[in-house]
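If you are new to this repository, start here. Below is one unmodified record pulled from the training split, so you can see the exact layout before writing a loader.
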Amino acid sequence: MRVRVAPLLVCVAALLLPGCQRIADVSGTVRVDGKPAKGLVVVFDPQATDAPRGVATTEGDGRYTVRRLGPGAKSGVPLGTYAVKVMADADNPASPKVPASYASGSVLSFEVKGGGNVFDIDISNK
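And here is the target side for that same chain:
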């Protein structure tokens, strides 16, 4: 009987080596006071210190798709738990107002799991 160990070692090594993390897509819609919010920045700060931060900007319909920071700025972020921040885009004066607590990351958190992840965010200024 012949056992093929090499593919198993490659899989184990991919999970243990830095930069070989499992990546999942994250998207959603941001609404402020019930309306889709254009021009907001959504930041996913990882709890894991070796994981890259994810960032997105909301489109006209409030939708966003997270891209991880770093070389190539590819879509998705590593699996794990993230503090989520939402703030006005400093370069866009037309961005909706967002309470300061959303920019601190103390209000929202999200666990990214395998596959596609949808994280809709509803913000109230009242």
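Two things worth knowing about this chain: Residues 22-123 form a domain with the Immunoglobulin-like fold (CATH 2.60.40.1120). Residues 2-18 have pLDDT under 50 and may be disordered.
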